[in-house]
């Protein structure tokens, strides 16, 4: 079927559905495709199929995203068949309610190789960390499942200038990722702004491989370090006590190599909490970094609650980090941390 015809059909069907059908909640249904849907390419559908062999509606992921009409008001599922999709993908703010659904993290891979220091051919300027992302999501109510997002740029020395290489940037509100892999080294996941829920995901990197100013709950995730020397898991950018941003890791597991900080104080009011996590021995005994600014030790909130593993000992932690009580940790443990009762029905 010609791409132009599919675009017209999809647009017509979507606008025939009222905004009320979209709802204001993300459910498990938004993260899955009924069995056989990828084989039945009907003319009345809100499932767009991506296949590199041309048997779907689009050969590229970006081509499928482009089929979604601006201002759509209901869930549109993009089923991405097995393949390595070597492209940059952007889901703009004008296209909410999009789901990217893969067929397994080892089978559906979106990968690109931009670094912050790369020069954009159009502008002649460096792309910067923000635009180095292999996949950039700027729309609300975005979902992804069973996909690998990768930045395949070669690993650089820890902290090397201009070598930031983002695999995934999340800049929309009310986002959920389930069983996804996010792979890179320096600055892998740009958790930029908005409220996000990452459940049973794998995130790989070396230094500040989760960073930004979002408010995000990471539950049951594997954090895999590939550092060859020192590194850090999280860098929260929170710069004011009035900001509700921060990162909460609950029931996560740390594996890998190097010597890692649990977090670094990118922002003056940086906020990172680990609860019920299994921390390997690659955590440096002091645990946390003030980013070279001692004044931040008075304003950050770096906390740990009921973690286990050889890296969980708090005996040598920096004195300005906190071993939390249950009452102190409770606001960070559940989905209420991200107002999940307002947009998640799982």
UniProtKB/TrEMBL annotation:
<dbReference type="GO" id="GO:0042545">
    <property type="term" value="P:cell wall modification"/>
</dbReference>
<keyword id="KW-0964">Secreted</keyword>
<keyword id="KW-0063">Aspartyl esterase</keyword>
<feature type="active site">
    <location>
        <position position="208"/>
    </location>
</feature>
<dbReference type="InterPro" id="IPR011050">
    <property type="entry name" value="Pectin_lyase_fold/virulence"/>
</dbReference>
<keyword id="KW-0732">Signal</keyword>
<comment type="pathway">
    <text>Glycan metabolism; pectin degradation; 2-dehydro-3-deoxy-D-gluconate from pectin: step 1/5.</text>
</comment>
<dbReference type="InterPro" id="IPR033131">
    <property type="entry name" value="Pectinesterase_Asp_AS"/>
</dbReference>
<feature type="signal peptide">
    <location>
        <begin position="1"/>
        <end position="22"/>
    </location>
</feature>
<comment type="similarity">
    <text>Belongs to the pectinesterase family.</text>
</comment>
<dbReference type="GO" id="GO:0045490">
    <property type="term" value="P:pectin catabolic process"/>
</dbReference>
<dbReference type="Pfam" id="PF01095">
    <property type="entry name" value="Pectinesterase"/>
</dbReference>
<dbReference type="InterPro" id="IPR012334">
    <property type="entry name" value="Pectin_lyas_fold"/>
</dbReference>
<dbReference type="InterPro" id="IPR000070">
    <property type="entry name" value="Pectinesterase_cat"/>
</dbReference>
<keyword id="KW-0378">Hydrolase</keyword>
<protein>
    <recommendedName>
        <fullName>Pectinesterase</fullName>
        <ecNumber>3.1.1.11</ecNumber>
    </recommendedName>
</protein>
<keyword id="KW-0134">Cell wall</keyword>
<feature type="domain" description="Pectinesterase catalytic">
    <location>
        <begin position="48"/>
        <end position="340"/>
    </location>
</feature>
<dbReference type="GO" id="GO:0030599">
    <property type="term" value="F:pectinesterase activity"/>
</dbReference>
């Amino acid at each position: 079927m010609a791409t132009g015809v599919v675009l017209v059909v999809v647009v017509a069907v979507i606008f025939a559905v009222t905004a009320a059908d979209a709802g204001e909640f993300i459910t498990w249904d938004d993260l899955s495709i009924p069995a056989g849907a990828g084989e039945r390419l009907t003319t009345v559908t809100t499932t767009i199929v991506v296949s590199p062999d041309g048997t779907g509606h689009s050969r590229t992921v970006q081509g499928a995203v482009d089929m979604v009409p601006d201002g759509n008001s209901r869930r549109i599922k993009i089923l991405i068949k097995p393949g390595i999709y070597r492209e940059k993908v952007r889901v703009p703010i004008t296209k909410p309610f999009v789901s990217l659904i893969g067929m397994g993290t080892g089978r559906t891979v979106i990968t690109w190789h931009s670094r912050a220091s790369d020069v954009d051919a159009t502008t002649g300027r460096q792309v910067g960390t923000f635009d180095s992302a292999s996949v950039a999501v700027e729309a609300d109510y975005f979902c992804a499942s069973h996909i690998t997002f990768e930045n395949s740029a070669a690993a650089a020395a820890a902290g090397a200038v201009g070598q930031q290489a983002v695999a995934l940037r999340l800049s929309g509100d009310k986002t959920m990722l389930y069983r996804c892999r996010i792979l890179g080294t320096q600055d892998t996941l740009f958790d930029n702004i908005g409220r996000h829920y990452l459940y049973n995901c794998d995130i790989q990197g070396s230094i500040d491989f989760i960073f930004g100013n979002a408010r995000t709950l990471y539950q049951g995730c594997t954090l895999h370090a590939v550092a060859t020397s020192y590194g850090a898991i999280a860098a929260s950018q929170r710069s004011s006590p009035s900001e509700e941003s921060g990162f909460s890791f609950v029931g996560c597991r740390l594996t890998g190599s190097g010597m890692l900080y649990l977090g670094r104080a990118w922002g003056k009011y940086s906020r990172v909490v680990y609860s019920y996590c299994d921390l390997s021995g690659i955590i440096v005994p002091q645990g946390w970094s003030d980013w070279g600014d001692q004044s931040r030790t008075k304003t950050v909130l770096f906390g740990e609650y009921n973690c286990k593993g050889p890296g969980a000992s708090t005996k040598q932690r920096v004195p300005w980090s906190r071993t939390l009580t249950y009452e102190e940790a409770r606001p960070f443990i559940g989905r209420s941390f991200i107002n999940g009762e307002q947009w998640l029905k799982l």
